[in-house]
Write a structure and sequence with these properties.
It comes from Leptothoe spongobia TAU-MAC 1115. By secondary structure, the chain is α/β, with parallel strands linked by helices. The protein contains 13 helices and twelve strands. It binds adenosine-5'-triphosphate (ATP) and magnesium ion (MG).
């Protein structure tokens, strides 16, 4: 807006005054609108907003002060600068005008140059204020998007830190377990061989020298050597089984904590889900307060997909851990027998589907727990949102899961829940990246 193009509303009930003011302003290049009363001015302002208002004080109907007050109360109009035109130049009325929000006053009869100079300066001031406000709002917006970006990075950092701390720890554990497991596992076989040899020798010995000696045969009975010989195989078997279990855990740990590389890896999502469930096994087991949480796997055939497996496992872990947290909380207020008849369960289901016209893997994690209210549901993916007490939850679990699935994998993560029925988290991951 050029200042001289600006429209100025002149409000005065005296036609002679209106004429002089209008001519003065028009000759200086301003556009002028007129109103002959406060009421008319307010009405006109509903349709057209001028750049400045020149307002007479003494008018029939609502006077200039009241008109000014009404304008200043209106959020759409309060910014328009108002200059009073007044024959009353006593201090009281000028003060009152300023109190009501006027920016200036001009006494009648006015001198043309003074009127023009004041109008011009207030229009300029108004324009500068607008520019400043605009700049402030632009800066505020820039700052707020910088803040959002910063928070996003912070989350990534936290996640990265969590992952690498966990990754290192777990890699360490994997190593520590694998070495001794190697001695035990390897030596079981050797021991079995030695033992078989020893047995062959013993049998041969007993054939050659049947135990005639009473001391030897009573010792043989006392030690129940016959039973011992039959049981030894079972013992070896269960030791080997134990080693296999330890090897499974250690493998799960390694798959779960796959330290992610910069590039995506082609991997099997079921392996990731299984290793995550394996790691959570100890939390699913029966306790004094509740029977075991049942896990039902409903997997279908899936292609391997290119992904950051460690990060996805972290996302699965965060979702599954929430369900377990919730079950634990429910168990505190429910008796054991009730939980036995209605077991707490988590169903992990995978399907290959078309999602938003893209071939995707759908993973749903459904619990039959207490559900989430709509109000909470709308906030669960926000950073720091938690309903858990201090120390129990940081409110980052789902924000991290969301970031991993949506931003890192171009997928989507939704939640559906019904109070007292349960909750389903739906994950979609495109099969092509
Ligand atoms: N399966 C679920 N059933 C009921 N409420 C849930 C479930 N999953 C998440 N919530 C709710 O969502 C909130 C946010 O979960 P989120 O994992 O982001 O944070 P948190 O579990 O509170 O803390 P953190 O995971 O950082 O330790 C939880 O506090 C809980 O109220
Ligand atoms: Mg959580």
């Amino acid at each position: 807006m050029q200042i001289t193009d600006a429209e100025i509303l002149v409000v005065d009930d005296t036609p002679a005054n209106l004429k002089v003011v209008t001519e003065t302003l028009a000759s200086a290049g301003y556009r002028v609108a007129i109103a002959t009363s406060g009421e008319r001015a307010l009405k006109q302002l509903q349709n057209r907003v001028p750049a400045l208002i020149l307002l007479d004080i003494q008018m029939p109907g609502i006077n200039g002060f009241e008109t000014c007050k009404k304008i200043k109360e209106n959020p759409e109009l309060y910014r328009i600068p108002i200059i009073f035109l007044t024959a009353r130049s006593d201090t009281d009325s000028t003060l009152k005008g300023f109190e009501l929000g006027a920016v200036d006053y001009i006494s009648k009869p006015f001198k043309e140059p003074e009127l023009l100079a004041r109008v011009k300066i207030h229009l300029q001031l108004q324009q500068m204020t607008q520019t400043l406000e605009q700049q402030v709002s632009e800066r505020t917006q820039a700052l707020s998007s910088a803040l959002t970006e910063l928070q996003r990075y912070q989350l990534q950092l936290i996640q990265h830190e969590k992952m690498s701390a966990l990754g290192n720890l777990v890699a360490g554990i994997g190593h520590e377990i694998n070495n001794p497991l190697g001695f035990v596992d390897g030596n079981i076989l050797v021991l079995k061989e030695y033992f078989d040899d020893f047995l062959t020798y013993l049998r041969l010995y007993e054939q050659t020298y049947p135990p005639s000696n009473e001391v030897l045969s009573s010792k043989r009975r006392e030690l129940d050597i016959d039973y011992l010989l039959t049981d030894i195989d079972t013992i070896f078997e269960s030791m080997t089984k134990g080693c296999d279990l330890i090897r499974d855990v250690s493998k799960s740990i390694r798959i779960f904590s796959r330290t992610d590389t910069a590039a995506k890896l082609t991997s099997n999502l079921h392996e990731g889900l299984d290793s995550t469930l394996h790691i959570l096994k100890y939390r699913l087991k029966a306790k004094d307060s509740r029977p075991a949480i049942q896990v039902i796997r409903d997997y279908s055939e899936l292609p391997d997909i290119k992904c950051f497996p460690g990060q996805l496992n972290q996302a699965f872990m965060n979702i599954l851990a929430n369900a377990i947290d919730m079950f634990e909380e429910v168990a505190e207020n429910t008796d054991y027998a009730t939980l036995e008849t209605n077991p707490q369960s988590i169903i992990v289901r995978t399907r290959l589907v078309q999602h938003q016209e893209t071939e995707s893997v759908e993973i749903t994690i459904t619990d039959n727990g207490k559900g989430i209210s709509e109000d909470v549901c709308s906030q669960i993916f926000e950073r720091n949102f938690t309903t858990k007490s201090v120390g129990k939850g940081t409110g980052l679990g789902l924000a991290i899961a969301h970031q991993v699935i949506v931003e890192k994998h171009g997928g989507s993560l939704n939640v559906q829940s019904e109070l007292d029925q349960g909750t389903t988290f739906q994950i979609y991951l495109p099969t092509m990246d």
